[in-house]
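User: quick one - fold this with S-adenosylmethionine bound?
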Amino acid sequence: MEFGRVAALKAAPLVDPFGRAITYVRVSVTDRCDFRCVYCMAEHMTFLPKADVLSLEELDRLCSAFIARGVRKLRLTGGEPLVRRGIMTLVASLSRHLAAGALDELTVTTNASQLEKYAAELAACGVRRINVSLDTLDPDKFRAITRWGELDQVLRGIGAAQRAGLAVKINAVALKGVNEEELPQLLTWAHGEGMDLTVIEVMPLGEIGEMRLDQYLPLSLVRARLAERFTLEEIDYRTGGPARYVRVTETGGRLGFITPLTHNFCESCNRVRVTCTGTLFMCLGQEDAADLRAPLRASEANDLLDAAIDEAITRKPKGHDFIIDRRRQRPALARHMSVTGG
Ligand code: SAM
Ligand code: SF4
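Assistant: Sure. Structure tokens for the protein plus S-adenosylmethionine:
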């Protein structure tokens, strides 16, 4: 009887102190990347020692522990998830939760550099939708933004994903003086190819050796400018993420806006993030975190891990408070997006 009660308690869904059920986990599977996007990384990054990074088996255990507690959507991110050696072993293994009906969606956020190689395999594992980050269609600008990226390779990756039947959403970071003039063209292209486009406001995360204020372009301005050229209809579409969507009448496609700096989307936050070292961040915009690696490694059973997750969720904050510090021009948070997983 006692055992049954404990089992029932363990399977209880994760609900935070504000009544929000945690059903979405984003897991960064590596801090490494084959690009060096100017808003994300410094050109010369020091990456984590291998021993600090969770093995593929540990990542599987961690994800499965969350799924056992009611998480329905899992996004693999990074760094660049598809440069992690053996990543498809993890995807294939996690796909058992899709087959079992325990997970609704397994998805990936990628720079698409390796997508030509992996698109078909991702689709075969039950991945249905992916997010591809692409800020410009100009090869020179692309190289300037990503420092090391090759636009052609990315476009081939997107083509392969579409041929494999994956729905692709393009994420573009709006960058002042870099791609702001090109956003209408990016929108027409994405919608013409049957892809949604989400524009992301640049966030003050991590020391990157660039001036944040130089990059910052408020999405209120982006939206107002797009509204001069396109008809933007409010729609009720939500993907479980923080984006607010409109339909563009002229193209028939969806356009999303993620505005962490100018709007609060915290009330409906259903997500947490785990880094590749097993650090759980309850909020993208707060420093508070919980170490899940120690409990994961301390025991082959999941009791300690489950207890650590439970304790952490009681600390999920109500919201965040991003600011670009205009006097000191320092990031509001010291960690990089490539660590937390965007
Ligand atoms: N490498 C993959 C990619 O680029 O899609 C996944 C990880 S990347 C950190 C996830 C997303 O975070 C990308 O869409 C990227 O553009 C975005 N990102 C990185 N740094 C950012 C920042 N400072 N502000 C806003 N978005 C950022
Ligand atoms: Fe790499 Fe993605 Fe960061 Fe660009 S945004 S450096 S592709 S992790």
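One thing worth noting: The two ends are 43 Å apart (CA to CA).
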